[in-house]
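Section 5: illustrative case.
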């Protein structure tokens, strides 16, 4: 984006930068508190309390245990009625056994930096509008934002932004796959395998049949689509026909449309395996990760502020087109659910880690001073583009128009220009969070 697209004055940009710099030590303290007390999906009680109390003590209106999750919170700040609403997502869950090896403490830091900056601007200039900090637990394999979205989060917001640390590159775009997890439970009938095998229904055979059929399906998958899976249980003794077997599977595709197409071929395999063996099967579809739909108007503006005003060199933050070619990620982010509800971006910033996310090397870098400063810089850029949404009508209209056009193209907007949320698929059985950190 050309330099003339900068919408804030030099003085306003300096106010935002200075407000974040002034809060750096305090934000560093919060980041390390989260880092040193890692909590896994849906049990992030300390982090949730730490952040929500901190914002409440600054005068924000805080609601805890929101949108279906005990460790989620929503904090709001406004002084003048009316205006638009912008949101910053804060993550704070850790990985089992690895702690903050995905740097979610930095995500929280960056979003709080953005919030502090806009809080200062609204207090100083009495602009109308509302700032929201959304505490979003369970990103690691729990699909926390999907759960919150199905319970009404982010509706009516004009923009939602966040950032994520990466090993050694920065980009204004988050390019991820769509993913959905399935837990399959086969129920058969036990019997003595030697004395009366004809009275049994072999659940082990059922899940092996399904696993084999999935392996055969893989050769027919489109580029970018994958299926992963493992058998968790398939019997306890060789002389007893197993009456229970269980497997965990994950399907991925470039977009939700492609994921639905893959699901239509994948799901019937389990019913066929059950029918072939006389067993029954219970399918739990949990933790949906929609692909991230990056709002290019916001992404271009983010890059503009970073390069023109925050000291990033152009080669450090590639163009959107270059980012699509070089930084397409094989993993997933539950921010995708937000991006289908309101315009948003999840920019990424380098933390100069020695290894990829979900590694000890990445964890060590996530606690470093360099990563902290880069998180603050990303927070400053997100604050500036969100300020543009709050006070510049033409820019806000452009962001919204792009979002509507993309949603229409994807069949997610009706003729009355009312957002059509994704169908909430019924989940059989109770929701049980996964424990393995396999999605980032």
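Designed sequence:
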């Amino acid at each position: 984006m050309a330099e003339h697209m900068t919408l804030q004055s030099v003085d306003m940009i300096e106010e935002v930068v200075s407000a974040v710099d002034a809060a750096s030590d305090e934000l560093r303290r919060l980041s390390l508190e989260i880092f040193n007390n890692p909590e896994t999906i849906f049990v992030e009680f300390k982090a949730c309390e730490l952040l929500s109390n901190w914002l409440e003590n600054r005068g924000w209106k805080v609601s805890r245990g929101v949108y279906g999750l005990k460790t989620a919170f929503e904090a709001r700040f406004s002084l003048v009625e009316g205006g638009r609403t912008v949101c910053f997502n804060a993550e704070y869950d850790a990985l089992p056994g690895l702690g903050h090896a995905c740097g979610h403490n930095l995500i929280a830091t960056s979003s709080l930096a953005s919030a502090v900056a806009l809080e200062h601007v609204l207090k100083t200039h009495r602009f109308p509008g509302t700032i929201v900090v959304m505490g979003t637990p369970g990103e690691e394999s729990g699909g926390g934002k999907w759960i919150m979205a199905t319970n009404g989060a982010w509706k009516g917001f004009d923009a939602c932004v966040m950032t994520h640390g990466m090993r050694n590159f920065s980009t204004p775009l988050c390019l991820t796959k769509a993913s959905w997890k399935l837990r399959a439970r086969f129920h058969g009938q036990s019997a003595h395998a030697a004395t009366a095998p004809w009275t049994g229904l072999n659940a082990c055979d059922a899940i092996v049949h399904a696993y084999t059929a999935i392996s055969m399906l893989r050769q027919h998958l489109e580029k970018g689509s994958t299926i992963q899976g493992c058998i968790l249980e398939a019997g306890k003794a060789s002389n007893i026909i197993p009456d229970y077997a269980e497997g965990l599977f994950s399907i991925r595709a470039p977009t939700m449309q492609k994921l639905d197409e893959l699901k239509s071929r994948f799901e019937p395999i389990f019913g066929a395996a059950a029918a072939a063996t006389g067993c029954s099967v219970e399918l739990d579809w949990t933790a949906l990760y929609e692909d991230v739909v990056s709002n290019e108007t916001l992404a271009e503006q983010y890059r503009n502020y970073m390069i023109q005003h925050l000291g990033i060199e152009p080669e450090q933050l590639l163009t959107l087109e270059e980012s699509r070619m070089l930084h397409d990620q094989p993993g997933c982010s539950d921010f995708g659910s937000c991006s289908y509800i309101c315009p948003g971006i999840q920019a990424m910033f380098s933390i100069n880690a020695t290894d990829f996310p979900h590694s000890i090397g990445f964890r060590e870098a996530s606690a470093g001073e360099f990563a902290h400063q880069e998180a603050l810089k990303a927070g400053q850029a997100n604050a500036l583009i969100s300020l543009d949404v709050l006070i510049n009508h033409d820019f806000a209209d452009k962001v919204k128009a792009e979002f509507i056009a993309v949603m229409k193209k994807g069949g997610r907007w009706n003729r009355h220009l009312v957002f059509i949320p994704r169908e909430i698929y019924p989940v059989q059985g109770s929701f049980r969070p996964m424990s393995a950190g396999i999605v980032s």
